[in-house]
Design a protein that fits this description.
Elements lengths: L1 H12 L9 E4 L17 H7 E7 L7 E7 L5 E7 L7 E5 L6 H15 L2 E5 L13 H17 L8 E6 L3 H10 L5 E5 L5 H5 L13 H4 L6 E7 L7 H10 L2 E2 L3 E3 L11 H15 L56 H13 L5 H23 L8 H10 L22
Parallel strand pairs: 5-6, 5-7, 7-8, 8-9, 9-10, 9-11
Antiparallel strand pairs: 1-2, 2-3, 3-4, 4-6
Length: 420
């Protein structure tokens, strides 16, 4: 039974476009302008041994865009696409969703880079696009590692300047890498999953045959986490995103998009505005000083999120406006990272405020407990009934990507759902 369930979960997880939406041809390797910035301990020759320049066909040429064939530790060759933004400080390593490849993501990555003023690297998983090998969980973990090393060794990007972005199934390799690399700048989870099995069934425990166990790994992520999810998502319920945000150590104000589904979140103006605000906030964080030393070893198993992080610190209600609510003093401050030190400071500041009556304190404590219990009960509710896996598979096969014009403001009328 376990093997059957695992097979079903794997079939749900991987639907590479067939045929691929682009092609590649080898091209001569030009001199690397950033050769001097190649990471210490490696050389341009060593980097070239596992990474070669290719040209993408079937997509329009764009200045500042290049592609490479990168060898992974599992022996497959994946295609990675790099979009350079002049004077960008941060680089986004983007793990796309299902039924997508670099050809379909091409224009979106270019707009993403231009609107957010970041460099972007996207890559195709093994078995997707023109990447070799077969799609599988273990391969995707090796794929994102190879893309990350390409950023560091070929493009001279510091780990402290890399933001990991995972969409839908892409949240699996994103959370896995973030749980092992504690010096990255931040993590964005877009319509993420708790695990492969939990997308289809309401299970309370994690089974060994499950895939992408994000629910187990997210507490090990030590960097700021932004979660974005649509309230009308009928592929991955919004409760997945809320639970992952709940379990994060460093919570940034999440974005629950009212009326958003699994594949159209980019069509909401609040999406790009909230991302800009998040990137602006994390740019101001010290890079490398407070981050853990560069180590790819997993943290100790007994490490857990700080108990001092209050679930009520960031808003749970979904809103398409970024301005904090004026009706609640808790929302009068701009969104900020919910770290342990900030929480302690808030508590100590609260102690110095003028004394409240004992009745008011008891009432406030009762409301806080009731709110927490309500959140916990809500998260423990069984997920709404899912479509059959066959119907879900056909739906995903039929879906594409939203139009890149979704980044334009005001956005054009939303097209029929063509998600990841």
């Amino acid at each position: 039974m376990g093997g059957v369930t695992s097979s079903v979960a794997a079939k749900f997880a991987f639907f590479p476009p067939d045929p691929p939406s682009y092609g590649v041809v080898d091209e001569e390797e030009p001199p690397q302008p950033g050769a001097a910035a190649v990471a210490a301990g490696s050389s341009a020759a060593a980097a070239a041994a596992v990474s070669t320049r290719v040209a993408m066909t079937g997509v329009p040429w764009r200045e500042g865009v290049e592609a490479r064939r990168v060898r992974t530790r599992r022996g497959t060759d994946i295609i990675a696409m790099y979009v350079r933004c002049p004077k960008a400080r941060l680089t986004v390593l983007y793990s796309h969703g299902n039924a997508a490849d670099l050809g379909k993501m091409y224009e979106l990555f270019i707009e993403f880079s231009a609107r957010l003023h970041v460099n972007v690297m996207g890559y195709d998983y093994s078995g997707y696009g023109r990447s070799s090998g077969k799609a599988g969980e273990a391969n995707t973990f090796a794929d994102i590692e190879a893309a990350y090393k390409c950023l560091v060794e070929v493009y001279g990007t510091r780990g402290e300047d890399i933001v990991l972005y995972g969409q839908s199934v892409g949240s699996g390799p994103t959370v896995d890498l973030a749980s092992r690399l504690h010096h990255i700048r931040a993590v964005v989870l877009h319509s993420p999953i708790l695990s492969g099995l939990r997308v289809m069934y309401s299970v309370k425990k994690t089974y060994w045959f499950d895939i992408y166990k994000n629910i187990e790994k997210i507490p090990l992520v030590k960097r700021p986490v932004l979660v974005i999810h649509g309230t009308n998502d009928d592929v991955v319920d919004c409760s997945h995103g809320k639970r992952l945000w709940e379990l994060s150590q460093q919570k940034y104000e999440p974005l629950w998009i009212e009326g958003g589904d699994h594949c159209n979140l980019e069509t909401f103006p609040v999406y790009i505005r909230h991302l800009k605000k998040f990137l602006s906030a994390i740019e101001k964080l010290p890079a490398g000083k407070e981050a853990a030393a560069e180590s790819e070893n997993l943290p100790a198993e007994n490490e857990t999120p700080s108990d001092s992080v209050a679930l009520s610190e960031a808003p749970w209600t979904t809103s398409q406006r970024l301005e904090p609510s004026r009706k609640s003093s808790r929302h009068e401050q701009p969104p900020r990272l919910s770290t342990e030190n900030v929480d302690k400071h808030r508590r100590s500041t609260g102690i110095r405020e003028k004394a409240r009556s004992s009745t008011e304190k008891k009432e406030r404590r009762r409301r806080s407990v009731d709110t927490f219990d309500r959140m916990r009960d809500e998260n423990e509710q069984p997920d709404k009934p899912r479509k059959s896996i066959d119907r879900l598979g056909e739906m995903i096969r039929s879906m594409g990507l939203c139009n890149v014009d979704c980044f334009k403001e005001p956005p054009r009328k939303t097209e029929p759902c063509r998600g990841q």
